[in-house]
C-alpha cells in the first residue's frame, strides 16, 4: 500500500525508533522503501569552536553506524542529516516522496505529554500521512 515510509529516529532514545521501524516494516509490503532518518541538531558555531576538533564528525559517524544497525534488521535504509529536526523530517519526506511518516509521540517516560515538540510540528506541517505511535 505504501511506496516509501519515512521513520524519524531520535538516537537519544533508540528503543522508540526500533519500535516505529518495526511498525513501518509491518505496514509496508515487499516493495516498500523504508528510510530511517536521524537529524543531528545544528550547534551554533560559538559552541563548536570550543569543542575538541573532530568531535562533531565522530558523533555523526557514530550516529550513522547506530542507525544502520537498526535499519539492517528490517531491510531499511539509513540517513543522517544536519539541521532542525522537524524541518529536516518534513523536507526529507517531500524529497523522498514519502507517502507515510511513522513517528513516536514523545520521548519514553514523558507519558503526560500527548505529543512532543518535534512530533507535533511534523503532524501539523507534513504533507503526507503521519502515524503517531503512543
Ligand atoms: P520529546 O519532546 O518528548 O523529546 P519529540 O517530539 O522530540 O519528543 O520526539 C518524538 C519523536 O520525534 C522521536 O521518537 C522521533 O521519532 C522524532 N524525533 C525527535 N528528534 C529527532 C531527531 N533529532 N531526529 C529524528 N527524529 C527525531
Description:
The protein has helices spanning 14-27, 45-48, 55-72, 85-96, 117-125; strands at residues 4-8, 33-41, 77-83, 100-104, 129-133. With 134 residues, the protein is of the alpha/beta class. The chain has one domain: HUPs (Rossmann fold). Residues 8-10, 13, 16, 37-39, 41, 85, 89, 103-104, 106-107, 110, 113, 116-119 line the site of adenosine-5'-diphosphate.
Task: Give the SSE map.
Elements lengths: L3 E5 L5 H14 L5 E9 L3 H4 L6 H18 L4 E7 L1 H12 L3 E5 L12 H9 L3 E5 L1
Parallel strand pairs: 1-2, 1-4, 2-3, 4-5
Helix pairs in contact: 4-5
The protein binds adenosine-5'-diphosphate (ADP).
The site of adenosine-5'-diphosphate (ADP) has 21 residues, from β2, α4, β4 and α5.
Distance between the termini: 22 Å
What is the average per-residue confidence, as pLDDT, rounded to a whole number?
A: 93
Largest sheet geometry: 5 strands, parallel
Structure class: alpha/beta
CATH H-level superfamily: HUPs
Could you estimate the helical fraction of the residues in percent? Answer: 40-55%
Q: How many H/I helices?
A: 5
Which residues form runs of ≥5 with pLDDT under 50? none
Strand portion = 15-25%
Shape: globular
Strand/helix succession: EHEHHEHEHE
Number of strands: 5
The fold-level CATH name is Rossmann fold
Structural domain count: 1
Amino acid at each position: 500500500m505504501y511506496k516509501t515510509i519515512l521513520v524519524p529516529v531520535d538516537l537519544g532514545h533508540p528503543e522508540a525508533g526500533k519500535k516505529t521501524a518495526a511498525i513501518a516494516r509491518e505496514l509496508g509490503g515487499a516493495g516498500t522503501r523504508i528510510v530511517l532518518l536521524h537529524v543531528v541538531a545544528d550547534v551554533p558555531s560559538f559552541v563548536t569552536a570550543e569543542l575538541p576538533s573532530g568531535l562533531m564528525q565522530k558523533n555523526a559517524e557514530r550516529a550513522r553506524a547506530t542507525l544502520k544497525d537498526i535499519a539492517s534488521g528490517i531491510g531499511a535504509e539509513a540517513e543522517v542529516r544536519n539541521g532542525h529536526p522537524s524541518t529536516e523530517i518534513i523536507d526529507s519526506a517531500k524529497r523522498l516522496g514519502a507517502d507515510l511518516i511513522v513517528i513516536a509521540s514523545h520521548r519514553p517516560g514523558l507519558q503526560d505529554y500527548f505529543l512532543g515538540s518535534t512530533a507535533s510540528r511534523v503532524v501539523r506541517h507534513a504533507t503526507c500521512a503521519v502515524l503517531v505511535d503512543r
